Amino acid sequence: MSWWSRAALGVCAVIAFVRPAAADPRAVIELFTSQGCSSCPPADKLLGDLARDPSVIALSLPIDYWDYLGWKDTLADSRFTARQRAYSRARGDREVYTPQAVVNGSLHVIGSDRDAIEGAIEETARGGAVMSVPVSLSIEGQELTVSVAAADEHAARKHGEVWVCSIARVVPIQVARGENGGRELTYYNVVRGVMKLGDWNGSSASWSVPLEKIVREGVDGAVVYVQDGSRDRPGLMLGAAHSDLPLVSRASATVRAPER
């Protein structure tokens, strides 16, 4: 049984909750990281700092290709490894490493280098298409509603895929073995599930998703992004938004509204 199905079984009640997403962000930063990588903890900490910036959507995507080094990453997902490699193919290089930050679906830099990340944000913004499409989220009752605005008539890109990610904002992990053995590491905005909502063709569009398809234990946020290209050849981030989600209680497996 998939975790989406387990989440659906665990959701017993949903409290009506409406909270609009924050203002349009300037960047989506994806950090490819691993619990088995001794160079990653500074990048993980920096991602936590960036996640507190309301103008940035920062995501942690733990990969699995270092699992053979003595410690199997407890958050890793082979889909994140595939995404990192898809970015490399789309760029035309062989740059797949940890910690690697991909900024706005375009440039990659070392994930622990704050100046390089800020520089990449500025560079990707110069083209005009990056993060130019307004996206909004709202939650009411048992549904998440995603709205994507129409493209400007002079926009260079008028097509993209719309994806929703469920995230866990803070995840402490005790690493027993490997390069980080004996350390407790904290991960921020960890992606715990991804689902394609549909395709955006330049016209305004909206989608409604049952919360039971997104919520699982530990998940307390959602990120939606519109991205040029495809899953196999991802391109520029055209727009994105973030919202808190109701929480699944560990004790009762019911959904409760987040504290304000």
From TrEMBL:
Pfam short name (any one): DUF1223
InterPro entries assigned to the protein according to its UniProt record, in alphabetical order: DUF1223 (IPR010634), Thioredoxin-like_sf (IPR036249)
Name recorded for this polypeptide: DUF1223 domain-containing protein
Superkingdom in the source lineage: Bacteria
Keywords associated with the record: Signal
Signal peptide region: 1-23
Organism: Bradyrhizobium aeschynomenes
Keyword Signal on entry: yes
